[in-house]
Design brief:
- The structure is a single chain.
- By secondary structure, the protein is α+β, with helices and mostly antiparallel strands.
- 41% of the residues lie in helices and 17% in strands.
- The chain folds into 4 domains: 5-33; 51-157, no CATH class; 171-318, C8orf32 fold; 327-399, Translation Initiation Factor IF3 (2-Layer Sandwich).
- The chain contains 13 helices and 14 strands.
- Strands 9-8-7-6-10 form a 5-stranded antiparallel beta sheet. It has a 4-stranded mixed beta sheet with strand order 11-12-14-13, covered by helices on one side.
Length: 399
């Protein structure tokens, strides 16, 4: 029996109408309701529940047995989305996970997610110098889900097993204890100074071109006595934290190259401290200088370029600057002979002296050197007297 062409036309028209109706409903649901989001959230929740439980990141969060108390400084500078990533990293590292999902975070495009991960990783490593076993190499990728993309991070560790990492953490704790020994009863300023001098006198700056990762972490300084600026500053932060002194890592530039140092809180004020620069002159003199110990922000900016200065504490006090605290400042109108004699008495029995000169050093240095020749002939080497001038700090070794 032949099919009625009119009937076929009506059926086809009806099918088109139904198709458009379903399409319209789907578009409406997608654009104007929460149904896709709810479905997507269920999927995301199921994925995330397959992972280990999350621990909320806060001031009580401990990554490992060395965890520091001042662990939220750079975390608090992040956006809400970056904090989700940071929290995922903190939990992942704590659990020694190689790969993990970033929960509660709707990832965008891959490049955008990678940039956000980079910011969070830097903040995490600055807050956690005790995580010395995290390699610099990491990766991130996105799983494209129904309503929002899910971000994943892959990390790499310096050791093959968690047992090996924990053993090395134990060794690091022993070295932190070593540098913090015998400080009961000292003031925070005295503890800060003693730890600074202990580390500075023990370490060597590495000049290797292909520098192993450990020389950029506290491991190089604490376990081998070798490192570069970020290694020194991270080790210093760990030991300071161990004796109850807050410190943060500062990133910037020195002599047009990347550089790292510390900010340290003594009393109610923050100060800049640069152990690497304190180490800069004693390859041939064995002098630990204090020209970079507890500087103001303005003084530090005369030496280094500070990255992201706006997120750092303001350092504007000289109360605990080494030279001011120890009374080693030569003022503008002071009698040079009297003042240098007093400073020389302070350094009796040592093989150098150091002090800060207010004003123009070049206008006073000849008079200073002549006074030294008069009061202590051990500064003389024939007719020549050696000295170093570091940003108005004068360091004069005996010969």
């Amino acid at each position: 029996m032949k099919k009625n062409p009119v009937r076929r036309l009506i059926v086809s028209f009806f099918n088109v109408i139904v198709t458009f109706a379903f399409l319209g409903v789907a578009i409406y649901i997608g654009l104007f309701t929460q149904i896709p989001t709810k479905i997507g959230n269920v999927i995301r929740k199921e994925i995330e529940e397959l992972k280990d439980p999350y621990e909320t990141y806060n001031e009580d969060f401990k990554v490992n047995d060395m965890s520091i108390s001042n662990n939220m400084y750079y975390f608090n500078t992040l956006t809400k989305e970056q904090k989700f990533i940071y929290e995922a990293i903190a939990n992942g590292v704590k659990n020694f996970d190689d790969e993990f999902v970033v929960r509660y975070y709707a990832a965008g495009e891959q490049d955008e997610f990678a940039d956000e991960v980079s910011v969070a990783i830097e903040a995490f490593t600055n807050d956690h110098p005790e995580v010395f076993y995290l390699k610099a190499q990491y990766s991130s990728y996105i799983h494209y889900a129904f309503d929002s993309n899910i971000g994943y991070i892959r990390l790499n560790y310096t050791e093959d097993t968690t047992t090996a990492i924990k053993e090395k953490i134990g060794l690091m704790k022993g070295r932190v204890d070593y540098y913090a020994r015998g400080l009961d009863g000292y003031s925070d300023y005295e503890k800060e100074l003693i730890i600074h001098d202990r580390i500075a006198s023990d370490v060597s700056y590495s000049h290797l071109e292909d520098l192993p990762r450990k020389y950029h972490t506290a491991e190089g300084t604490l376990l081998e006595g070798v490192g570069v600026c970020d290694s020194f500053s991270k080790a210093y932060q760990l030991v300071l934290n161990h004796v109850g002194i807050d410190s943060i890592i500062v990133l910037g530039e020195l002599s047009d190259g990347p550089h790292a140092w510390n900010m340290v809180k003594i009393g109610d004020s923050w100060y800049h401290v640069d152990i690497t620069s304190s180490h800069s002159i004693y390859d041939d003199t064995n002098i630990i200088n204090h020209a970079y110990f507890n500087l103001t922000t303005e003084a530090e900016k005369n030496i280094s370029k500070i990255n992201d200065e706006s997120i750092l504490p303001k350092a504007d006090s000289t109360e605990y600057n080494f030279y001011y605290k120890e009374g080693l400042v030569l003022g503008e109108n002071e009698d040079i002979y009297t003042r240098i004699s007093e400073i020389d008495n302070y350094f009796e029995g040592r093989d150098f002296m150091e002090f800060y000169v207010v004003g123009d050093v070049s206008a006073k240095i000849s008079r200073i050197l002549n006074v030294l020749r008069d009061i202590d002939e051990t500064y003389l080497d024939g007719t020549k007297l050696y000295y170093y001038n570091l940003k108005n700090a004068v360091i004069i070794p005996k010969n």
